[in-house]
Amino acid sequence: MESYESVSMENRKQKEIFSSIFLFLFVLILFLPRFGALDAMGFHWMALAILNIIVSFSLIYSNQLKHFPIKFKPIWFYLGWLSLSALSIAVAYNPVESIVVLSRMLIVLVGIYNLYCLLSISRNNLEIVLWILATATVVESVYVIGMLFYNYSRYPGIDEIIYFIRFYAGNKNILAASIAVKIPVLFYLIHRTTKKINFNVLMLALFCALSATIILNARATYISVFLQSLAFIGFELYHYLKIESNKKYIRNILYYCFTLIIAVLILQFVFSQIEKSKKTVSYGDLNKRISSIAFTKEGSSSRFLYWEESIDFIKKNPILGGGLGNWKIYAINYEQNYRTSFICSKHVHNDFLEVAAESGIVSAVVFCLIFVSLSLILLQNSFQRNSKKRVLAFMLFLMLMAYLIDSALKIGRAHV
Fold it and tell me: Could you give the 3-state DSSP secondary structure of residue 395?
């Protein structure tokens, strides 16, 4: 009997180890180089597809497949959006491009299911993946800080110094969004930690992440971090006043505010010194970049123009749109009148308008319902009595909020 139990325990440990390795590989994809490719995302999608295949066969072999969470409403809406997107291929000018984008949607769906199965193998897997994500945030953030000083000697202007901080994300905006989406992971770990050394390490990691988002000068990320900060402070206050009168929640607020203020002050000083010897046009210190945030044609970096063009196209093609992934083709018809080069925008810089333009208004509504339903579920669980479930749900909501801001103002769907 003891021998059977020991064998069973050993098998369980092996499954947990393999699942942890696979979870690490999912995060590692973020750091894969482009190997000379013009589009870094292309190789990342291929790597994710290969990893999905390996994980799927491993789960089948080890009999670890779980029932597909079909009762989860966001999955319904995702499947509906996927189906409507597939229908739009019938009207696509370039159906091959549509098939490529559709395959990526399927890769995401399979990836979500694989992660669901891996996280179900052991309760410890969730903590493992959160610490992996926290480590990834630190790596990205330290890289950004280091590149700011490295690029100082390489480029004549602040714009170039910041613009060429890319890492493996493709461009600085994607890198900034990647960091912003993972900042709530640090909030979660800070909220739950009871060890002083872990708290100090996490605060240092948070300082690096906040500094990196300031350096990258991505205005959508500024909005995300600002709203995340308010939400985190409010959540800690709620815990202190309504759940548990533990002074650690007040400590978390004070330390976070101190960390944010120090990051801002240090970077303001650094940029003021750089501006003395480097020319600047668009980028610079926090004051300059925040002052440029405005929902006007002048402050939107052509986004208003892209949105107007997409709305005009949607009015003309409301049912099936122009075909999944085909906006980049139809954008040429609009931009040929004012573009002075062979480069045109590939995206609308608003995922919801882009979905409507490519696969129709109904498809865009269903796409919106994915996030509406998911937000409601997470907010509802954020106020449950179960402490771990409550904090986890709130963290996921903050991550979703950062993604939605990126989707509304940039191209979050293309960054997934």
Answer: helix
Strand partners, 279: 157
Pair 223, 405: CB distance under 8 Å: yes
Rounded to the nearest 10 degrees, the angle between the axes of helix 73-87 and helix 351-359 is 50
Q: Within its chain, how far is the Cα of 209 from the centroid?
A: 14
- Contact of 50 with 35, CB cutoff 8 Å: no
Quick: pLDDT tens for 44-90. 899 999 999 999 999 998 888 888 877 889 999 999 999 999 999 99
CA–CA gap between residue 334 and residue 326 (Å, rounded): 14
How far apart are the C-alpha atoms of 189 and 183, rounded to whole Å?
A: 10
Q: What is the pTM of this model?
A: 0.88
pLDDT in tens, 132-188: 999 999 999 999 999 988 888 888 888 788 888 887 767 888 889 999 999 999 999
CA distance 400 to 49: 23
Instruction: Count the neighbouring beta carbons within 10 Å of the beta carbon of residue 213.
Output: 24
